[in-house]
């Protein structure tokens, strides 16, 4: 929860006014809030790497830092845990929609 | 050196370790009178054990494991408050996975979930808000805990709930701050710390200025560090070099992620939604002034403390952790303060294990006790085992 995980921004919601987007985290897509990393134009963020904490992009990082951080998190077993939490939540919410 | 091959750059790690050894010797620290460096962040504690850094550094240097593991410092009474809310009719109670296994006096949230309460693990507070949108007839409560790293996420979620008028969403706010417990530890006459390794991601949010008092008023160095083992070793060397040269400054080893000024958008969201509490109770550390935050009046409609009348919102004094019979015999407090090694606690590995934790330090992989247990611990753990 505290260490976060690097993700690559692959999508910006609408024209960016909602400050929401989608990141790819280790192959899993997850909606994120971009408020803390938007400088001017949200759409300029596509393709950028960010550190994602509990669904919020908190800091822009470069691709090399992203790779090193992912490796360090994997060694601690934290990357796996984070991705599992994302997946489990996704399942919980889609079960919710179906019910 | 069994762990060396796991470093990204073993040669560099060796050279940093050699410089650490030289510096410790130049300072004159020994096994009998070691230097004590506290790593504040639980993520750093985990990395230190994972890579056996505590065994790689010279005996004149000791890591003291700080209070920076949010679930570890969470008092039982706050877990009891969560259960109190979760048991109300029509409530969906949501939280991060880490919090599910923290014991309160009436068990854990996981146990209550098994007993039929609607308690759900979510990855993000945004998911709790989404649940509230989909279940307008239910009260959806998110248990917000953690330091300055996770605080912006709940602040921004509450702001979204207000903007969109999602009135069945509320936050049970139990966020805590890093600088106040450091000050409390520095004021504690039992503590003898020579320097600090500062948290990386908390600092990414708040910057490095909030630590300046540590150097200015207490004359101790602090180096903000990244999470790779080499980051940690380099940060320790930077702190030791300051000690050797008689300096006390706040330095930033993790500048690739941590800007000096922090993250303005994150801090302004927190400031808009939260205000400091007069004081907050910590497991093991007791009440610390201004160490937690509560929701501002403007967001009262989204404040679970006010909505459900629990915890600090109940209008009566909260139950103090130190007064609970459940905590008798537990030495979590001394371990959190770094005054006692986990293995020296009579409950460690006997009544208290990661499968059946008594104290929260055994719950999270970021807790010092769980880390000792999982990775076989430090030098003194091995010597305790050898003696048995």
3D structure, described in words:
- The complex is a heterodimer of chains A (99) and B (388).
- With 99 residues, chain A is an alpha+beta fold.
- Chain A has helices at residues 63-75, 78-98; strands at 5-12, 20-25, 28-33, 49-53, 56-61.
- By secondary structure, chain B is of the alpha/beta class.
- Chain B has helices spanning 10-27, 42-50, 53-56, 76-86, 109-114, 125-134, 151-164, 179-187, 200-206, 212-218, 229-244, 264-273, 304-308, 332-336, 368-375, 379-387, and strands spanning 35-41, 61-68, 91-95, 119-121, 139-146, 169-175, 195-198, 222-224, 250-252, 274-276, 279-282, 286-289, 293-295.
- In chain B, the strands form 4 sheets. A 5-stranded parallel beta sheet of chain B has the order 2-1-7-8-9.
- The two termini of chain B are 25 Å apart.
- The model of chain B is unreliable at 378-388 (pLDDT under 50).
Strand content of chain A: 25-35%
Q: State mean pLDDT of chain A (0 to 100 scale).
A: 92
State the share of residues found in helices of chain A, binned by percent. 25-40%
Please report which band the strand proportion of chain B falls in: under 5%, 5-15%, 15-25%, 25-35%, 35-45% or over 45%: 15-25%
Q: Which sequence of strands runs across the widest sheet of chain B? A: 2-1-7-8-9
Report the largest inter-chain contact: A-B, 40 and 47 residues
- Structural class label of chain B: alpha/beta
The average pLDDT of chain B is 91
- Uncertain runs of chain B are 378-388
Query: Biggest sheet of chain A, in brief?
Result: 5 strands, antiparallel
Count every helix of chain B, treating DSSP H or I runs of 4 or more residues as helices: 16
Shape of chain B: globular
- Radius of gyration of chain B using CA atoms only: 21 Å
State Rg of chain A. 14 Å
End-to-end distance of chain B: 25 Å
**Whole-Å distance between the termini of chain A?**
29 Å
Record field, number of beta strands of chain A = 5
* Tally of separate helices of chain A: 2
Low-confidence stretches of chain A: none
């Amino acid at each position: 929860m505290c260490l976060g995980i690097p993700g690559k921004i692959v999508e910006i919601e609408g024209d960016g006014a909602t400050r929401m987007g989608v990141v790819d985290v280790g192959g899993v897509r997850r909606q994120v809030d971009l408020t803390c990393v938007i400088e001017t134009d949200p759409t300029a963020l596509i393709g950028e790497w960010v550190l994602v904490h509990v669904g919020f992009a908190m800091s822009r990082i470069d691709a090399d830092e992203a790779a090193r951080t992912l490796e360090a998190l994997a060694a601690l077993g934290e990357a796996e845990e984070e991705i599992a939490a994302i997946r489990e939540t996704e399942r919980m919410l889609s079960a919710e929609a179906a019910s | 050196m069994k762990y060396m091959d796991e470093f990204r750059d073993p040669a560099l790690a060796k050279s940093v370790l050699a410089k650490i050894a030289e510096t410790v010797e130049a300072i004159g620290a020994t096994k009998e009178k070691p230097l004590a460096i506290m790593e504040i962040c639980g993520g750093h504690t985990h990395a230190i054990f994972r890579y056996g850094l505590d065994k790689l550094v010279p005996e004149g240097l000791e890591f003291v494991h700080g209070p920076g593991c949010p679930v570890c410092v969470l008092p039982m009474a706050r877990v009891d408050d969560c259960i109190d809310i979760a048991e109300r009719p029509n409530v969906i109670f949501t939280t991060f996975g880490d919090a599910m296994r923290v014991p309160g006096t009436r068990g854990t949230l996981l146990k209550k979930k098994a007993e039929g309460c609607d308690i759900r693990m979510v990855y993000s507070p945004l998911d709790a808000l989404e649940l509230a949108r989909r279940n307008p007839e239910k009260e959806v409560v998110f248990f917000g805990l953690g330091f300055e790293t996770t605080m912006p996420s709940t602040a921004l979620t509450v702001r979204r709930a207000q903007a969109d008028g999602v009135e069945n969403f509320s936050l049970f706010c139990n966020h805590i701050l890093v600088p106040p417990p450091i000050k409390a530890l520095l004021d504690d006459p039992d503590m003898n710390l020579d320097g600090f390794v500062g948290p990386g991601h908390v600092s990414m949010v708040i910057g490095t200025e909030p630590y300046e008092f540590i150097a200015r008023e207490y004359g101790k160095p602090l180096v903000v560090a990244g999470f790779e083992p080499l980051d940690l070793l380099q940060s320790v060397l930077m702190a030791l070099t300051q000690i050797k040269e008689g300096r006390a400054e706040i330095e930033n080893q993790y500048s690739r992620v941590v800007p000096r000024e922090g993250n303005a958008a994150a801090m302004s969201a927190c400031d808009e939604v939260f205000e400091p509490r007069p004081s907050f109770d910590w497991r093991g550390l007791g009440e610390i002034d201004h160490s937690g935050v509560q929701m501002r009046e403007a967001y009262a409609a989204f404040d679970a403390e006010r909505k459900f009348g629990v915890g600090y919102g109940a209008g009566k004094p909260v139950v103090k952790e130190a007064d609970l019979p459940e905590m008798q015999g537990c030495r979590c407090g001394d371990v959190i303060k770094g005054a006692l090694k986990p293995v020296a606690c009579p409950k460690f590995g006997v009544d208290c294990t990661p499968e059946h934790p008594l104290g929260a330090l055994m719950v999270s992989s970021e807790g010092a006790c769980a880390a000792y247990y999982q990775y076989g611990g430090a030098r003194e753990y091995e010597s305790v085992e050898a003696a048995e």
